[in-house]
Write a structure and sequence with these properties.
The complex is a heterodimer. By secondary structure, chain A is α/β, with parallel strands linked by helices. Chain A is built from 25 helices and 19 strands. Chain B folds into two domains: about 1-65; about 80-160, Glutaredoxin (3-Layer(aba) Sandwich). Classes of the chains: A alpha/beta, B alpha+beta.
């Protein structure tokens, strides 16, 4: 069947809502990548095996609270169970599904106070969040279009197609103040306006799902958890600029996102929400899902277009901007996943509603992936302008190791490291730019006192150096030279002159590279030099790594007084670097030792330590 | 004769893949992806064949095949072990896991695949499963919250399984 009018869309939604109402309870098991890796598929199977009448069982997209996975949500009771194992299912079925009682031990307990929380609304991790792009993530089955439609899905598209002229859509997006969520922060409405005004019959709209920043998984979660929202946003953008074909470019490392998007496109086609004569009008639009092949630079828009065309994914100078000359030389708009996922909500609720959330220059919400040494790893969405402190401590639950907070790395390899003094920085485009970082796609990695900032700078530089496409000299040569100096520093072989060179090269790369990759690659080095210069000096002058991380400055050794000669360290050593007779003190051969720390972890007597 | 027939069969499969995607250059990446899924790597003669079949220069096809990290021009092991070295895994000590696995399998000096083509050990920049950091995948199986010892136990199990065969 096909939906050809608004009335039919509403009737379709109503029909499914009625069907859901016949079920007394609904079990939603998270099937995001994190929970799947923790075995949530087995939990789903177990629920299906123990099925109870009038209970619907569905898998859902990412709930966000990856630390506590696999997650199981029971509606309408608003119960959230954490760390659910297949063997827990029987108890949930007996107690919660049959009798309506919560299973106390599976609820989330506050790590300090021990207090138990019943549902998402109560847990501090969720309390301070405002969910727009992630509204349906975790609440619906991403593989069932009926669920999306029942949550007002495709209503915004109906409005965009039936009630609005293309100029009016652009006007609303401009008014809402929506800015690109992929990093640059360029006003989305302006981009659309340029492409709308560009001459040509064929235009393209492209969704950038090449989320390459290590430590970022917001876009992956949206594509996996609510793929129809991305498709609806894409269709609205197409209607606004006059495109009849769209692409979603997804990283190859996200196979689940690819399959869910493909399924969503098929379902939308079957209902006539993609294809010819959408909602009975002359508007025609279809979508192709394109898989990347593992190149970070393809997140840059001109490189991404080259990649879709089947070429090496290298950027080209702009202008001409893609809005005028993009895919196959035609006017093209490239928007990030989260940007497009926000569009349906704006068209549905109006620009004034959107502008009322977040700050004046950066309205709306932003998703962040908080990871690293933070208590609650996961995916969150907060109003723009929330402070770093709120995100790391109120939502993230602070540092998980108990050591003091040292820095937050925001914006991935293009971003910067912000120290504790800057915890009150609001997370929005302009404020972050001022302190040398950027919103980027939204990766936020928390680091504690045990993290060496020089090592972190080396780590990111190695990443960008490896991913540099080699087209322009500053990025190709500069990142390589920066990496060499950083490697010298962590090896304890650098001089203060090297440090000056590092800073100078970093500025040259930043100022003169061709594309965003090179222009932002020095940010991790420049911010760590700005906020943690002492650590660089300690490595160079004192030949010390204050955090005790850099292996050049440390060796494992056995304290013969404490060693009982049990041999546990010898057996745990993957490099066979430990020798010794039973019941006699063992010794570590420093030449063979790879400094992995396995022996220290294995020693029951605390006899092995790092010096 | 059998060698010729085997070669024909080899290109038959490639032909099917090319037919399925079409000969436009925009299909090159998906074609290479499917060919690699078939052979576990991209053999040189097949790249040349694809170039001819798609009316592209050999340099263009090699250029694309060597640009993207997903493609390999060398055979990979039966078990591809990927240790994630994304930021979240890195700060939760993924490198000791990587070093331990490499050393366990005797991989030194820029070698990534064992001589018996059983194991390939690589790093990958972020699998997006940061909640389970550090993460290691073996083929498609994800192992979360790794330590050097846990990783070596997993490798041992695989070695034992292979030894029994």
């Amino acid at each position: 069947m096909a939906i050809t009018s608004r009335e039919e869309l509403n009737a379709y939604a109503e029909k499914f809502r009625e069907e859901l109402a016949t079920k007394k309870k609904r079990v939603l098991v998270c099937a995001g990548t994190g929970c799947l890796a923790n075995g949530s598929d087995k939990v789903i199977e177990e629920f299906k095996r123990n099925s109870v009448d009038a209970v619907a069982i569905a898998k859902s997209g990412c709930h966000g609270f990856c630390e506590a996975g696999p997650l199981v949500r029971i509606e309408p009771d608003h119960i959230l169970y954490v760390h659910v194992k297949p063997e827990d299912v029987e108890e949930i079925v007996e107690k919660t599904l049959k009798k309506g009682e919560p299973v106390e031990r599976l609820l989330y307990h506050h790590p300090v106070t021990g207090e138990a929380y019943l549902g998402e609304g109560d847990i501090p991790f969720y309390k301070s969040q405002t969910r727009v792009a992630l509204a349906n993530c975790g609440a619906i089955d991403p593989d069932d279009i009926r669920e999306y439609i029942a949550c007002d899905g495709y209503k915004a598209l109906a409005r965009a197609v039936l009630d609005l002229e293309s100029g009016e859509i652009i006007e609303e997006i401009l008014e809402s103040g929506l800015r690109g969520r992929g990093g640059g922060g360029f006003p989305t409405g302006r981009k659309w306006m340029f492409a709308h005004a560009a001459e040509g019959d064929t235009k393209y709209i492209v969704c950038n799902g090449d989320e390459g920043d290590p430590g970022a998984f917001m876009d992956r979660s949206v594509m996996e958890g609510d793929p129809h929202r991305v498709i609806e946003g894409l269709a609205i953008a197409a209607r606004a600029i006059g495109a009849s074909h769209g692409y979603v470019y997804v990283r190859a490392e996200y196979p689940l996102a690819v399959s869910r998007l493909k399924n969503a496109v098929d379902q939308a086609r079957q209902l006539g929400l993609l294809g010819e004569k959408i909602f009975g009008t002359d508007f025609a639009f279809d979508v192709t899902i394109k898989e990347g092949a593992g190149a970070f630079v393809c997140g840059e828009e001109t490189a991404l277009l080259a990649s879709i065309e089947g070429k090496r994914g290298m950027p080209r100078p702009r202008p001409p901007f893609p809005a005028n000359k993009g895919l196959y030389g035609k006017p093209t708009v490239i928007n990030n996943v989260e940007t497009l996922a926000t569009v349906p909500a704006i068209v549905l609720h109006g620009p004034a509603w959107f502008h009322s959330i977040g700050g004046e220059s950066s309205p709306g919400t932003k998703t962040f992936a908080i990871t690293g040494q933070v208590a609650n790893t996961g995916l969150i969405e907060v109003p723009m302008g929330a402070t770093l402190r709120e995100v790391v401590f109120d939502i993230g639950g602070g540092v998980r190791t108990g050591r003091p907070f040292k820095a937050a790395q925001i914006g991935g390899p293009s971003g910067g490291c912000l120290p504790a003094e800057l915890l009150d920085t609001p997370l929005e485009y302009d404020a972050l730019k001022k302190v040398g970082a950027m919103v980027g796609s939204g990766g936020l990695v928390v680091m504690d006192e045990g993290t060496c900032m020089v090592e972190v700078a080396r780590f990111f530089t190695k990443f960008t150096q490896h991913e540099s496409c080699g087209k322009c000299v500053p990025c190709r040569e500069g990142t390589k030279r920066m990496l060499e100096i950083l490697e010298k520093i962590v090896a304890g072989e650098a001089t203060m002159e090297d440090l000056d060179n590092l800073e100078e090269i970093a500025w040259v790369v930043k100022e003169s590279s061709l594309c965003g990759l090179g222009k932002t690659a020095p940010n991790p080095v420049l911010t760590t030099l700005k906020y943690f210069r002492d650590e660089y000096v300690a490595h160079i002058v004192d030949k010390k790594c204050p955090a005790g991380v850099c292996t050049a400055f440390r060796n494992y050794s056995v304290d013969p007084e404490l060693c009982k000669g049990c041999g546990k360290c010898r057996r745990s050593c993957p490099a066979e670097a430990i020798s010794g007779e039973v019941r006699k003190p063992h010794v570590i051969d420093v030449d063979k030792c790879i400094k992995c720390g396995a022996c220290a972890a294995a020693c029951p007597f605390g006899a092995i330590s790092l010096q | 004769m059998t060698a010729v027939r085997a070669a024909q069969r080899k290109f038959e499969r490639v032909n099917e893949i090319i037919e399925k995607h079409g000969r436009d250059q925009s299909s090159l990446v998906p074609i290479l992806q499917e060919v690699q899924a078939e052979y576990r790597y991209l053999p040189e003669e097949i790249l040349t064949y694809i170039a001819t079949a798609m009316s592209l220069s050999v340099a263009t096809v090699f250029g694309v095949a060597t640009f993207y990290a997903q493609f390999s021009l060398e055979p990979k092991g039966k078990y591809v072990v990927r240790v994630c070295d994304g930021t979240a895994c890195h700060v939760r000590q993924s490198m000791p896991v990587y070093e331990a696995v490499r050393s366990k399998l005797g991989l030194v000096d820029g070698k990534f695949t064992t001589p018996d083509l059983m194991f390939t050990v690589e790093t990958v920049s972020c699998l997006g499963a940061c909640g389970l950091a550090p993460v290691m995948t073996i083929n498609d199986e994800v192992h979360g919250k790794m330590t050097p010892e846990a990783a070596c136990i997993i490798i041992d199990t695989l070695l034992e399984r292979e030894g029994e065969k």
